[in-house]
Amino acid sequence: MKPQAKHGTTPQNELERLGISPGDRITVTTPKGKLEGLLMPRAGEERPEILVLKLDNGYNAGIDANGAVIEKRPQHAKAELQKTKKGSFLSGEKQGTASTLPKIALIATGGTIASRVDYKLGGVQPMLSPEEIFFNAPEIARIASFEKISRPFTIWSENMAPQQWAAIAEQTAKELNDGADGVIITHGTDTLHYTAAALSFMLKNLDRPVALVGAQRSPDRGSFDGSMNLACAAQYIVNSQAAEVAIVMHATSNDDYCHAIRGTKARKMHSSRRDAFRPINDKPLAKIWPDGRFEKIQAARPASSKETRGKVEADGRFEAKTTIIKAFPHTTQEILDYLIEKKYRGIVVESTGLGHAPTFTIDKKHSWLPSLKQAADQGIVVAFAPQTIYGRLSPFVYDAGRMLKKLGVVHCQDMLAETAYVKLGCLLGRTRDQEEVKRLMLQNIAGEISSRLSFEDYLD
Amino acid sequence: MKPQAKHGTTPQNELERLGISPGDRITVTTPKGKLEGLLMPRAGEERPEILVLKLDNGYNAGIDANGAVIEKRPQHAKAELQKTKKGSFLSGEKQGTASTLPKIALIATGGTIASRVDYKLGGVQPMLSPEEIFFNAPEIARIASFEKISRPFTIWSENMAPQQWAAIAEQTAKELNDGADGVIITHGTDTLHYTAAALSFMLKNLDRPVALVGAQRSPDRGSFDGSMNLACAAQYIVNSQAAEVAIVMHATSNDDYCHAIRGTKARKMHSSRRDAFRPINDKPLAKIWPDGRFEKIQAARPASSKETRGKVEADGRFEAKTTIIKAFPHTTQEILDYLIEKKYRGIVVESTGLGHAPTFTIDKKHSWLPSLKQAADQGIVVAFAPQTIYGRLSPFVYDAGRMLKKLGVVHCQDMLAETAYVKLGCLLGRTRDQEEVKRLMLQNIAGEISSRLSFEDYLD
Asked: CA Rg, chain B, in Å?
């Protein structure tokens, strides 16, 4: 006999009666057909008769379940999630017995990876709780034990600021000092690389892997990349033995493998592709498959063994009077003068070619030289980074470079402008000694300067 | 009997006696050995005994020719240069009989391609005359007739400004209206792509090809790329039948072929590689070999036949109060407020992700929304372009995008920020109608907006 819907009951009552909660595998049978998938958490209070299922093809489906027959299926996914420590990933508290799996602490900060589609508002909205992330990536519970989940704040990454970097650094240090084998930070992708650079400089004595992970597609889509990225991030923690902050995201546009990219050498290079993050003037640290296959590509700073781990410290100080400007035709020196007047202490310039800015114009109005002289006199650190993104600066080839260098400009080798900005803000937050800051800008602290550029690292 | 050096004569006297001038092929025999190559023009008055030869391997060699035996060799290169019109490329004046080769006008503006290494100063210096370019690329005289050479100014491209763009546009229009089949502009590479975009918008009714060309390596080096780039640029004029402004530069790091890249879709992506220029969100127009092989990759605006050519016009107006700023973590709205106060009329924002800027921060201090509201109220056009460089903006996916759009922000699709800046300045130079400018920013005028992005156009 076919199961039938109880008359007069609502889908929510029915779920309750059957003991079904989010993460359970269910079937929903309506006159239009039968759908099977994982029950997703509800997005809000409105229209409770709409159930959202994650189908096996990855897509989410919203179904009007009024009058539908709901059945519970064997709970593979949920069972996997809770196998290691019942409920632990949901409560953020230790429960049950200890797991032998590596321990990963998860810090959730918002972004698409921690979002859901609001079918009412027609856009992507933040998840109600960070634990929902696991409903999209149940397989990661097989890789590690997620005992600690924290969410210091929930913001889209375009709204991230240095105070949030400091908060994430603090929380990361705390988790590591509490015994985590590594930390995964979920984050929006817009500024993921800035945060990765910030953690690279803010975490002192880092002796374990830290992975930043995001998603380019929302969880309701079949092309959702967050689950594979999360799995690969977990594999990075478990397998890399690297004491490095890395971004772990799709390496190609297929769901095949991820790259772990050094946090100071990564840049978001595409607005929508899943393989948007690219190593710049560097190779990836590793190629990582979600099933645990791991291919080291270059040497990373080695992680400590469990026995020799020390105390990780977070130094979240950041000089607010740091900024980035761009050199381009007709950039008057006006903005530079304004920053000098406003007593900025650090200015990163996305400079042209091998590290240039206007040193002369035919109307003699817009040379940067007088302003740069004034900046130097006031102790402002001006750091040039390549506007070309790829390649290294070289101030000795042309007169312009030599003139700029004489005025105290620091040519930051092959450092990304975004990384140079983060590094400069961190250094200026720690000391008022301008010469020391200039010296440290050219000293490789967290892999931000490549000793040599390999020819094949361009674009690909 | 071996030739012997005349005692008491200087190398310069000896050159004069033998009727040797720059561009001639000579041998110089010293006790250390014998060198053969093209005599290069002298860099200055000092140390006249040093002769500079361009060797057949491409390298320049400086030789102390005191007491050396100098001999003139058959003048292949010079002969080729002057075959079509004796001396015409040197004087810039019409001389001799008419050539049947296509006519290319050359506009020289400075840059590495028009430079020489000053062995005394130890750096790269501008050539003394634009005709020297031909000594580095004698083979182009076989491709076309270069009757007109002009040099409106000589500046390195980091010092280029919109008034120079206007001057180049004027000169280009003049050459075309005087009957040139196309124009080649030699230019420094730092801002070559800005100028390419500017000419794309400033030249009206363009009905013939215009090629911008530069060099990433100076002419004294074996890896000098300027000669092949010039040859390919000439082939672009002769073979493309495209009424488009294109950058023609090395497509790979080998001396095999060049790409012609649409002027509004090109970006310098590497500080030093010869294949630094890349098409962004676009395919190249064509693959071009210096020997004339030509492979069209995508459709270009077709050139007019000789009979139907019209009048090309230059509109060099550019609104000086236009600039570019970048959205990044902790960009306060301060710079934006400053630009509003300074009555800027156009602001391009290198926005994050799909077209975002801070709309909220936890300390509630640095949202851009109030400033953008004020900008809109004052009739300032704010145009967002992708900071990721690759990919397209899409303001409807997230709340931030929708909020920004509501405040009148123009999301410039897949347009490069550099191109958006040039386009915005041009449009604002022509009208004070803000709504018209916003409308035109989203209308494809010179190939700056791709109707669809092809998957394989990312990075490679």
From this structure: 25
Closest-CA distance, B34 to chain A, in angstroms, reads 30
A111-135 pLDDT, tens digit per residue, is 888 887 766 666 677 877 888 888 8
Res A437 pLDDT > 70: yes
Looking at the fold, whether A45 and A100 belong to one and the same domain comes out as: no
Rounded Cα–Cα distance for residues A270 and A276 (Å): 5
- Chosen domain end from A27, A46, A74: A74
Residue A237 lies in a domain: yes
Calculate how close chain A gets to B145, using CA atoms only, in Å.
31
The 10s digit of each residue's pLDDT in B393-443 is 999 888 889 999 999 999 999 999 999 999 999 999 999 999 999 999 999
Interchain contact, B271 vs A358, CB within 8 Å:
no
CA distance A227 to A224: 7
B389 and B344 in a common domain: yes
CATH number at residue A104: 3.40.50.1170
The answer to whether A413 faces chain B, any CB pair under 8 Å, is no
Q: Answer whether residue A95 is part of any domain.
A: yes
CATH number of the domain at A427, please: 3.40.50.40
| Minimum-distance CB partner of B352 among A190, A335, A392 | A190
Which of A16-25, A255-264, B175-184 is predicted least confidently?
A16-25
pLDDT band at B84 (very low <50, low <70, confident <90, very high): very low
**Is B442 an interface residue toward A (CB < 8 Å)?**
no
Q: Are residues A248 and A363 in the same domain?
A: no
Per residue, what are the HEC states of B73-136? Answer: CCCHHHHHHHHCCCCHHHHCCCCCCCCCCCEEEEEECCCHHHEEEECCCCEEEECCCHHHHHHH
Report the pLDDT value the prediction gives residue B456, as an integer from 0 to 100.
Answer: 65
B236 & B368 share domain: no
**Distance (Å, rounded) from C-alpha B449 to C-alpha B168?**
24
SS3 B66: coil
Report residue A300 as tokens: 């990373």
Report d(CA A244, CA A224) in Å as an integer: 26
| Residue in B163, B268, B402 closest to A362 by CB | B163
Q: Which amino acid appears at position B29 of this protein?
A: T
User: Which residues of A are known to be catalytic?
Assistant: 112, 189-190, 268
Q: Domain span at residue B35?
A: 11-74
- Which residues, other chains included, contact A299 with Cβ-Cβ below 8 Å and sequence gap of 6+? none
Whether residues A114 and A231 fall in one domain:
yes
User: pLDDT per residue over B218-261, tens digit each?
Assistant: 887 778 899 999 999 999 999 999 999 999 999 999 889 999 99
Residues from chain A that touch B421, judged by Cβ atoms under 8 A, are 328
pTM, whole model, 2 decimals? 0.87
Confirm whether B3 is domain-assigned: no
Q: Which B residues, 383 through 402, put their C-beta within 8 Å of a C-beta on chain A?
A: 386-394, 396-400, 402
H or E segment to which residue B27 belongs: strand B25-30
**Each residue of A392-424: pLDDT tens digit?**
999 988 888 999 999 999 999 999 999 999 999
- Chain-centre distance for alpha carbon A418: 14
Q: Is B178 an annotated catalytic residue? A: no
Does residue A52 fall inside a structural domain?
Answer: yes
Supply the pLDDT for residue B221: 79
| Residues present in chain B in total | 460
Q: Is residue A353 pLDDT above 90, yes or no?
A: yes
The domain total for chain A is 3
DSSP structural state of residue A363: T
Order of strands, sheet of A50-55, starting from the edge strand that comes earlier in the sequence: A60-64, A50-55, A33-39, A25-30, A69-72
Question: Hey, what are B56's tokens?
Answer: 């057949």
Q: Chain A contact for B421, CB < 8 A? A: yes
Q: Is a pLDDT exceeding 60 seen at residue A15?
A: yes
In the stretch 348-367 of chain B, residues with CB closer than 8 A to chain A read 350, 352-363, 366
User: What is residue A96's predicted lDDT score, i.e. its pLDDT?
Assistant: 44
Say yes or no: A58 and A148 in one domain.
Answer: no
ipTM: 0.87
